[in-house]
Write a structure and sequence with these properties.
The chain is of the alpha+beta class and about 575 residues long. The chain contains 15 helices and 21 strands. About 50% of the residues are buried.
Length: about 575
């Protein structure tokens, strides 16, 4: 939405496609927290925000993009306010600030209506500008001309069950992350990595795709809400308001405060990667609860603050765990959950990919957050780089003018491939394969990884691709709002990205940020570098490259390898 607004204001004829209802996004599900140097905390600065982001990302962030994020975040927060967003305030001209895990200063602003407010004001702004929106239009692929430039988008109108080819001079992919690759996920069901896979198939580079962020605490039960985020332990203690105070305490089934073994200084106020990994190790080693979590002991004194700032979460706790937990008077069962894809399409600071005419912004992009994201930094990322993507794509489209070429034959050939599952009389249901992929990713490419398990996953993926995918059958013959058909299309994307994650995780022989290898448990400064992945035919080509903007890069070790895709 932010990219569409910027592109329209830059003079481009703009169309927005949404896979589901345009309101059904990860932003809407978020808490609406927004890291920014607002000027209200005298101790904070752009340099401090920059350092926190780089340190959280374990040094492999795109440093240029981090600087852009830090310097433009406040202007974009004011844009949202102009669109009608109500930021939390303590008084008319003073924003209410709080903290998230990994931050060194109180700097996080919050939307009064959480992520719902951010989504709604952008949607209203789009309507005011007259930008057309097409709900239930799933982007399936981009189409390139003979010169390798994107000239069209192949989409499936899910509401009508018909294919549509949209001729255009530029495409901005902002399709979110890949959290649905995992068995336990806090993201929306439509986050199956479509945009990342589409960009990969189009020839774009991916970066840092081995890094997946898991929110440390989420609901353990009931199954209907398992994995839904409960934010961070800092919100359940006074550390949410004071960097020197305590967060909610995490205990295993022996009553041990186990996080002290992993980060004795920041304790439960540590970064998401450290906390999620610490919790998962306790569960895997048998020190969790019978339901498969650990216990978080909140501070009852922060209940009134929490209720004011996060009423939706109090409601969810009440409905699913009970009144004592909702009032922070009893321990709360928590577990990690797949949240945010840290890697993705590699772009420059103006959101250009390596494919002419293809741009990307938001969670679909890698580089900004490195090996781990600060809580509260996804919202400014979307606003800052969404705007930049819109401006650049509009300028690119203007230069192209009327040169866009229709490539219907290429689109038709792709449609023929994708229709085969609708005509089979026997085969495997998409949901059965999807569950196999999700379990493989959760068990082997999740919080705890090892070489043998990653190799086992790659073998399983090759088996699925060669022997199972050709047998996929959609049992529902209706073409209108056929979720099973959509899942069949999503499977190819999930396999493409799952394999890219597994092969790069296997290659990165160290532990860094959200990537934890039991066989390489220490950080290796020789790996202060990024892994680029691109597709050449059916092969994935992996290349180790220097970190963008790193002033004192570690001794570079050239690495180029091929991996079966």
């Amino acid at each position: 939405m932010r990219a569409a607004i910027a592109a329209h204001e830059a003079g481009a004829k703009t169309l927005l496609l949404a896979k589901g209802p345009c309101r059904a996004s990860h932003t809407r599900m978020s808490g609406g927290r927004y890291n920014v140097v607002s000027g209200l905390n005298p101790g904070d600065s752009n340099d401090a925000f920059y350092r926190d982001t780089i340190e959280s990302g374990a040094g492999i962030n795109n440093h240029e993009m981090v600087r852009v994020l830090v310097e433009e975040a406040m202007d974009r927060a004011l844009d949202l306010e102009e669109y009608g967003l109500m930021w939390d305030r303590t008084e008319a001209k003073k924003y209410y600030l709080s903290m998230t895990g990994g931050g060194s200063f109180v700097r996080t602003m919050g939307s009064m209506d959480e992520g719902i407010g951010i989504t709604e004001v952008m949607l209203h702004r789009m309507h005011a500008l007259g930008i057309p929106v097409r709900d239930f239009h799933m982007l399936v692929d981009v189409v390139k001309d003979d010169n390798g430039r994107v000239v069209g988008a192949l989409t499936l109108d899910l509401a009508r069950g018909v294919w549509k080819y949209i001729s255009c001079a530029a495409v901005i992919i902002a399709t979110g992350g890949t959290s649905q690759l995992y068995e336990t996920s806090s993201g929306p069901s439509i986050n199956t990595g479509d945009g990342v896979a589409i960009a990969l198939r189009a020839g774009a580079n991916l970066v840092d795709i081995e890094f997946m962020q898991f929110i440390p605490i989420s609901f353990v039960y009931p199954p209907s809400i398992r994995g839904y985020t409960l934010l961070e332990p800092a919100h359940y203690g006074k550390r949410h308001l004071d960097p020197n105070a305590e967060a909610g305490h995490l205990l295993n089934n022996k009553g041990e405060r186990f996080v002290l073994k992993h980060d004795p200084i920041r304790k439960e106020g540590s970064t998401r990667d450290v906390l999620a990994r610490a919790i998962m190790i306790e569960i895997l080693e048998g020190r969790g609860t019978p339901e498969g979590g650990v216990l978080m002991v909140p501070d009852p004194e922060v209940f009134e603050f929490f209720l004011k700032e996060r009423p939706i979460y109090v409601k969810r706790l009440l409905e699913n765990y009970g009144e004592p937990q909702a009032r922070m008077q009893a321990p709360i069962q928590v577990m990690p959950s797949a949240l945010y894809t840290l890697g993705g399409v590699r772009v420059d600071s103006w959101c250009r990919s390596s494919v002419p005419g293809l741009f990307a912004a938001g969670e679909v992009v890698g580089g900004v957050h490195g090996a781990n994201r600060l809580g509260g930094s996804s919202m400014p990322d979307i606003q800052v780089f969404g705007r930049r993507a819109g401006i650049t794509a509009a300028d690119d489209a203007r230069v192209m003018g009327g040169q866009s070429v229709r490539c219907l034959d290429k689109a038709r050939a792709r449609i023929y491939e994708l229709e085969s599952c609708m005509s089979k009389t026997d085969g495997v249901r998409p949901i059965d394969v999807k569950k196999r992929v999700q379990k493989l990713m959760w068990d082997h490419v999740g919080l705890v990884r090892s070489g043998p398990r990653l190799e086992e996953t790659l073998r399983a993926f090759r088996e699925l691709r060669s022997h199972v995918m050709p047998t996929i059958k959609v049992s529902n013959s209706s073409r209108v709002l056929n979720r099973e058909w959509m899942e069949a299309l999503e499977l190819e994307n999930m396999l493409d990205i799952g394999e890219a994650m597994a092969v790069t995780a296997l290659e990165r022989t160290e532990t860094r940020g959200a990537h934890y290898r039991t066989d390489f448990p220490q950080r290796d400064e020789n790996w202060t570098a990024n892994l680029n992945v691109r597709r050449e035919g059916r092969q994935l080509k992996i290349e180790k490259v220097p970190v963008v903007g790193l002033r004192t890069p570690a001794k570079e070790r050239s690495l180029v390898m091929n991996a079966s895709a």
